[in-house]
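pinning this so it doesn't scroll away 📌
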Amino acid sequence: MDANKENARDSIITKIIYMKKVFILTITLLILCPVLFSQNIYNPSKGNKLNREEFQNDKFGIFIHWGIYSMMANGEWVMNNLNLNHDEYSKLASGFYPSKFNADEWVKSIKESGARYICFTTRHHDSFSMFDTRFSDYNIVDATPFKRDVLKELSEACKKYGIKLHLYYSHLDWGRDDYFPLGRTGTGTGRSGHGEWKTYSEFMNNQITELLTNYGDIRALWFDGWWDQDIHPDFNWHLDEQYSLIHKLKADCMIGNNHHRKPFEGEDFQMFERDLPSENKSGLSGQEISRLPLETCETMNGMWGYKMQDTSYKSAKELIHYLVKAAGNNANLLLNIGPRPNGEIPEIAINRFKEIGKWMKTYGETIYGTRGGILKPEEWGVITQKEDKMYVHILNLKSNELYLPLKGIKINRVVSFAGKKPVKFTIDNGGVLLKFQEIPSGIDFVVEIS
């Protein structure tokens, strides 16, 4: 055999052996794939699942946007909106002295509203930390004359009054050079150089570790700012690593992210900003609704952070309606307040707490522990359900009759929730026709069906 033929034969044999090896490796990988991929699938702990259920049952929480931006009295986005130089802006900290801050009074007032949890902004987009951290001197203890860890005090007050604590944390930063590449906000704050994302990611994870180990029972972390990803769609924020860290540090801690998308792997609840899950009036909530616990956040007036000129607070009726509609959409309401720079919650917000709390003392049973009704929300109102009871919340009925297409539902009793007076009804066309002596009025006329 000549050399060319011998080389050709050896080449063919080599290729056959290589193909066999590839085939064997492929089969092995296919067999192992379920095992390999199962390691990346998030399996929430038993405690996490219990927290999810408790969270859904709570139904009502208070959001607190508070930081050195309150000194500008122009909302929490003032640094970005006015293109303030971050070095100059940071000097606000040296004058931040909230002499009237009283965590005990805050939590007592919030408890009076009927809310069962608080979400506090530990670090907003302006980079200032509202807690004692070893990883940045730019915090309320080291950078201000106040020298008090307001988060520690708030945590202790929450424990005292039985209020669960959630913590807001911004992925976005308008001050640090290592928040890079820049997104669509904070581009006018005077950063001329840039560091590496790796150090920023480490900084965040170090602070998150502090938050989960130094401040008692934290039920949830509420992330914000990931939507800068829209400018750099291929950038890796390493959320999977961060989420794994959180669940390793505190397996029962829930994670939510206000990224305006369907929840990612590792997240435990889904939020909707300024919208009910079934709506998208603000343009921020068009994402698919998941099967995770849901929460909608809304402001009491027009801003999240304190703004002196924003006195257009929603009425108690409007706020109660929003709470009821959220429950009817199977969601919680996280209602925001913006304390003043001196640490006071505005008086009108305190009054709203009292008014909502008074209503909740009577009607809380129709909200707490319920799930969204079997009928979708309508213009007239919503339905909430708990065990074998349905609560028909009539908010805006134009006539003295209401037809409910409750086909196949056995009905034994229909009464007004307040007073338990019988409500006339007939079974009609496979549904139920409720008949009232007059058009229901008031903040919310609730009918109990069992």
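📌 and the second one:
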Amino acid sequence: MKTIANITYPAFALLILACFALSPQARAVPPAQDAGYPIQNSATTPGQWEFTGSLNSARVGHTATLLQNGKVLVAGGIDGNGALASAELYDPATGTWTVTGSLNTARLSHTATLLSDGRVLVAAGTGGGVLASAELYDPTTGIWTPTGDLTNGRFAHTMTLLPNGTVLVAWGDAGFGSGLVASTELYDPATGTWRPVNNTHGLARAYHTATLLADGKVLAAGGRIPQVWGLSSAKLYDPATRLWTPTGSLNKPRYAHTATLLSDGKVLVAGGEKWRPGHAIATSELYDPGTGVWTYTRNANTQRYGHTATLLGDRTVLVAGGVDHGVILTSAEVYHPATENWTLTSGLNTARTGHTATLLPDGRVLVAGGSDSNGYLASAELYGPRE
């Protein structure tokens, strides 16, 4: 069997490259649980994963966007031959993928956001260099059209649709020894142009998260900077003033984590890496917008980074896949906000990291692509209640 250490990935995939530094012997040693709030693993949540139709192209570093018609648009990424321009649509009614129009620029480690008018904005990433270009997908025609370029090329950034319909892009990596991108920018769909956000209040970062809060502000948390493998600082962006301001810091520095807005308005941050690559963490924290304070919640059952987190219809959060000390995971678990407990659920059929997870209108979760120990994946799976 070919090990992941023999697979060549581009520099963007920090969360995957971190696996390579550990020897097979190191990967075989069960890691100790990270300190924090006590673990809870005495219960399980019924659920099952079933394979659905496979992507036409294996890919990792892609995006997945739920369209207004209920289909899922997957775009870009990388396979064994390089960055991809191809895009495809998943139809939940048939469980099949069909090819749609290709991006004008092949790219990976980009971001994608569904706009208020139903179009999809894809921005930046890498592909023959670090990209500043952006383009729009029209679901009615299946065609991608170039739109205005960002001021700064970047990858490992975040992109957030604001309540007024504009889109906020924050920070990221300039790549190839160029350091981080200090700027944040706003995209106006009405004009197709970007404008800078002048106040970024200090530290640039990459591999962070950005979460739209119930009050319309954006919470940016964690990430990394050169020579620092994990940040604890967090910042708030206010669309009314177009300013970033500091807020409470995470209790545990982390990057390559997930952040999920809960139904009560709090934000759950789970997993990630800490002070150096390969060191996954199990601690989870809750951010309270009312106080600006982070508090520990219970540890997850499994340490992981490079995973996905999806808010389900019953207000619980499904976490799936990722990496733990160089081992790509099949495990999945569910966070219950009412009890602050994590419970195990059925594992993925295929171990994967760098995949996407999309909540479908019928309540199932579509996981697509990613990579396992043998390389790039075209397979896709659906998670739903056990029948």
